[in-house]
Amino acid sequence: MGHTDESTTATGIDPADRRFAAVRGCERQLSGIRPQSLAERLADLSGEDGRAAFDLDGRPDVYGDGIVAALEDRVAELLGTEAAAFFPTGTMAQQVALRCWAERTGNQLVAMHPLAHPEVHERQAYSQLTGMRTVWPTTAPRLPSAAEIADCDEPFGTLMLELPLRDAGFVLPSWDELAASVEAARERDAVVHFDGARLWETEPHFGRSLPEIAGLADSVYVSFYKTLGGISGAALAGPTEFIAQSKAWRHRYGGQLFQQWPAVLAALVGLDRELPRLDAYVDHAKTVAAALAAAPGGRVHPEVPQTHQFQFWLPFTADQLNEATLRQAEESRRVLFGGWRDSAIPGFALTEITVAGPALEWTTEDVADALKEFLTLLG
């Protein structure tokens, strides 16, 4: 949940352990999913859902065969691509995708947003490991427009679009805007890669199927622990030759693990369990956002969520809000928020709301009542 104040750490209790115990002990949770102990997670994977997802009486995978290959086939089918490759991390998948396209196009310049994941959360691996560099078609907190892509003053070889753009507030363009942006890149002889870590929940906004969305790009990356609740892992999807090249680089980057069945099984369970529920999550996010927007000084962004995730801002410090979050969880056994962090706006902190299964039982009145209690804890 982010920062903790001195009174929390002074107790001698590990802050992460306190968070885990507080949220796990709650009867009701608005944002995110209930944390599980190791025993609970193992029982979940070996239980009914795990057995429905894959034959658990078979042998474990060895260097990417068996259950790993089954997941790759499933992802390719879901996205409508020729092939897919499983990766242990999204960071590795992203770096391999950009590297492969640079080799194929002969151009190491990538157009992306300054808030894109490789710029903010990957320690500039694309430049440190490959010598690639980036150009920003726009710095506005949204995806670049077709005009901005067309007018970019450097000849990039790959356009990378993060759908949704998480650090701008999980924002998306319209379908027509996205199609126009892709076409603008094509007219510049560039390939298009979608950072689709959260692509799964974009169908309601675009009004298109996953194959239609993925079909706009030359390659797509998807995550299994974001949205789907998996343990870890990601996949690249695209043409057969591109995926074969990606697997070669996956090996070189250390991603050819001996066995990966726990993460892969969790991904298959997530596809079975969570994918059919995403429309309901996205729809209910609008109800939750409207209820939270009534908080004095509070702000929801986007005002109407475009996925099942959005930002919520309050005029307090992150330490104050994190402590109030834990106190409410411990004292009333209901928790509204995950972690808070201080924002660039002085005096305001923000949290990311994820409307998943536990949130579906919350009515507008439930959110308002719990929010009132939460604000009381802030004094």
Automatic annotation (TrEMBL):
Gene Ontology MF, one: L-allo-threonine aldolase activity
Pfam families according to UniProt: Beta_elim_lyase
Cofactor needs: pyridoxal 5'-phosphate
Domain Aromatic amino acid beta-eliminating lyase/threonine aldolase: start-end pairs: 62-308
A GO CC annotation given for this chain: cytosol
Keywords assigned: Pyridoxal phosphate
Superkingdom classification of source: Bacteria
Record-linked Gene3D superfamilies: Aspartate Aminotransferase, domain 1, Type I PLP-dependent aspartate aminotransferase-like (Major domain)
GO biological process, one term: glycine biosynthetic process
Annotated signal peptide: none
Similarity annotation: Belongs to the threonine aldolase family.
Name used for this protein in its record: Threonine aldolase
